[in-house]
Amino acid sequence: MKIDLRSDTFTQPTAAMLAAMFSAKVGDDVFGEDPTVNELEAYCAALFGMEAAIYCPTGTMTNQIAIKCHTQPGDEIICDKTSHVYIYEGGGIAFNSGCQVRAIDGNRGMITAEDVVNAINPDDVHKPITSLVSLENTCNRGGGSCYAIDTLQQIKQVCTQHGLKLHLDGARLFNALEATQQNEQQYGAIFDSISICLSKGLGAPIGSVLLSTAAYIKKARRVRKVMGGGMRQAGYMAAAGLYALKHHKPMLALDHIHAKQIADALLNKDFIGKMMPVETNIIIFEVLDNVGTKAFCDFMQSQNIYCLAVSPTQVRMVTHLDVSSDMVQHVVNTIHQM
Ligand SMILES: *Cc1c(COP(=O)(O)O)cnc(C)c1O
């Protein structure tokens, strides 16, 4: 029995999810005629209290479309230095939008309103035009860290004052909502655009949704087509996303408990160095030189537990739907044995 803690993208669709997919009503979504895609988009827009939504194959695409629709070539985007949009999307900001990044040295992937104020360029021909702030919640490279709603509201205020757009990469937003007891409507009221992933903790095989105003989503449909993301009978996949949103959100709480159980076991070991605070389903920790990340991951793998080295000194484990409480017990026992 393989226990895959490398990412929450490894989940397999459940029998009930597959049944929902097989029975989906579909049409050509490029013509706007796939009823299940339309239902998913309307469901997400209502959930966040936003006007419209667009379904895309990946979170990279929803983020990149969002950035393209908010900017002009030559603009500057403010984000944390570890943001997914900056370091994990293949240089897409430059490739797709012709923009550059003002990378902030934030705290566990999170930045403040003061950071934003200090990074905005003055009106000076030497300087790129600052047009967009992009935040991530939870922060992947921040160890699944979560923003306080106050911080987001303060950043929004700065953006409004300076005429900047505010985008959220909410690939794991539902984990953050669960951990902080915040809700979707609060986010819909703050952000100009929000990207959510259905294929992470929610357990769908594919899919992300971008949310914003109706006018902006109309523009996003054009950009999605340009990027090759206009899909036809996509309702089969959208049905999995709808199923995940309706049935899997409450299960994220257990993933967070599991992550803390594994973290507690690791913290008892003298070969474990600094660990980022575990707030959601991600555990990122240092393995000290006397063992090393490779030997650690190799030993875990010999016990059928798959972990991911995310830097020469750090290992990441992520809990998700396909990691049961029994599996977590096996992981904890294995760590005790080391
Ligand atoms: C996974 C992820 C994405 C999107 O990734 P895709 O694999 O393109 O769906 C975006 N942002 C963050 C923070 C992520 O973890």
Overview in brief:
This protein folds into two domains: 3-9 and 251-337, Aspartate Aminotransferase, domain 1 (Alpha-Beta Complex), CATH 3.90.1150.10; 15-247, Type I PLP-dependent aspartate aminotransferase-like (Major domain) (Aspartate Aminotransferase, domain 2, 3-Layer(aba) Sandwich), CATH 3.40.640.10.
Main sheet: strand order:
2-8-7-6-5-3-4
Q: Domains counted in the coordinates: how many?
A: 2
Order of helices and strands: EHHEHEHHEHEHEHHEEHHHEEHEEEH
Query: What ranges have pLDDT less than 50 throughout 5 or more consecutive residues?
Result: none
Assign the CATH superfamily of the largest domain. Type I PLP-dependent aspartate aminotransferase-like (Major domain)
Quick one: CATH class of the largest domain?
A: Alpha Beta
Mean pLDDT score: 98
CATH domain topology of the largest domain: Aspartate Aminotransferase, domain 2
Give the number of helices.
Answer: 14
CATH arch. level architecture of the largest domain: 3-Layer(aba) Sandwich
Helix content: 40-55%
Terminal-residue CA separation: 20 Å
Q: Helix/strand-derived class?
A: alpha/beta
InterPro entries: ArAA_b-elim_lyase/Thr_aldolase (IPR001597), Low_specificity_L-TA-like (IPR023603), PyrdxlP-dep_Trfase (IPR015424), PyrdxlP-dep_Trfase_major (IPR015421), PyrdxlP-dep_Trfase_small (IPR015422)
Domain Aromatic amino acid beta-eliminating lyase/threonine aldolase: 4-287
Cofactor: pyridoxal 5'-phosphate
Protein name: Threonine aldolase family protein
Can you put this structure into words, describing what you see?
Residues 4-287 form the Aromatic amino acid beta-eliminating lyase/threonine aldolase domain. Keywords: Pyridoxal phosphate. It holds the Pfam family Beta_elim_lyase. It is built from 14 helices and 13 strands. With 338 residues, the protein is α/β, with parallel strands linked by helices. The longest helix has 16 residues, at 252-267. It is globular. It has 2 domains: 3-9 and 251-337, Aspartate Aminotransferase, domain 1, CATH 3.90.1150.10; 15-247, Type I PLP-dependent aspartate aminotransferase-like (Major domain) (Aspartate Aminotransferase, domain 2), CATH 3.40.640.10. The strands form 3 sheets. It has a 7-stranded mixed β-sheet, sandwiched between helices. It has a 4-stranded antiparallel β-sheet with strand order 9-10-13-12, covered by helices on one side. It has helices at residues 15-22, 35-48, 59-70, 84-87, 92-97, 113-119, 149-162, 173-180, 184-190, 214-226, 235-247, 252-267, 293-302, 325-337, and strands spanning 3-4, 52-56, 76-80, 100-104, 130-136, 165-170, 193-197, 208-212, 272-275, 282-287, 305-306, 308-309, 314-318. Pyridoxal-5'-phosphate (PLP) binds next to helix 3.
